């Protein structure tokens, strides 16, 4: 479904501070699977995730989503592809303080210009499914860690993206909440979604819900990955 072909990424290219973060990555990511990237700090996990999810472009190489070449798209189309295909959960969840749970969940819906009432209905249905509809009107700074996690997941799904991207989503969670996160993403897979995440956490690599662990080192995939 997502095909990464000979992807290299050099930051600050042509300058003395140039740094090769990805050095020839070839990877096929299966649809409807939960894939986890692991590797030491600085090995390129976040960079690869950002290129796969159309947040950044490779310096060379190609990324195809369902056979569509996205890596060479002009900015406007790359942004559209990103909004249409991906939902994002960040390490600290990046919920906007001062706004309610519902307002946070609706944030990614706004640029797509959908009908506000229909968006709110979808948001509430998702919050219900995640068991936090009762907190819809609560300001996010008053949520527990587990509630914030579920609010972040609801926000990532508001535009019904086929692929969920999560960068270290369990880093600040205790074991129970880390497993709860995996249970939720397993449920998303059952809805037909693809989940791609990074994790430093051996509890995650070993979890039953994970279909594949991809190991990275120094901007490359470890042997026997492809
Ligand atoms: N915007 C940037 N400009 C310059 N260098 C960068 C930039 N982003 C990342 N890097 C460098 O690229 C390399 C890979 O970084 P990346 O964040 O992809 O690694 P990572 O495996 O996700 O690390 P971590 O586990 O610590 O998050 C690192 O050496 C990092 O310092």
From TrEMBL:
One GO CC annotation: plasma membrane
CDD domains: ABC_MJ0796_LolCDE_FtsE
Molecular function, one GO term: transmembrane transporter activity
Listed PROSITE patterns: ABC_TRANSPORTER_1, ABC_TRANSPORTER_2
Keywords assigned by UniProt, alphabetized: ATP-binding, Nucleotide-binding, Transport
PANTHER family hit by this protein: ABC TRANSPORTER ABCH.1, IMPORT ATP-BINDING PROTEIN
Keyword 4Fe-4S (UniProt): no
InterPro entries hit by this protein: AAA+_ATPase (IPR003593), ABC_transporter-like_ATP-bd (IPR003439), ABC_transporter-like_CS (IPR017871), ABC_transpr_LolD-like (IPR015854), MacB-like_ATP-bd (IPR017911), P-loop_NTPase (IPR027417)
Organism superkingdom: Bacteria
Annotated protein name in UniProt: Putative ABC transport system ATP-binding protein
Pfam assignment, any one: ABC_tran
Domain ABC transporter, chain residue ranges per copy: 2-226
Organism expressing this protein natively: Aliiruegeria lutimaris
The keyword Nucleotide-binding appears for this protein: yes
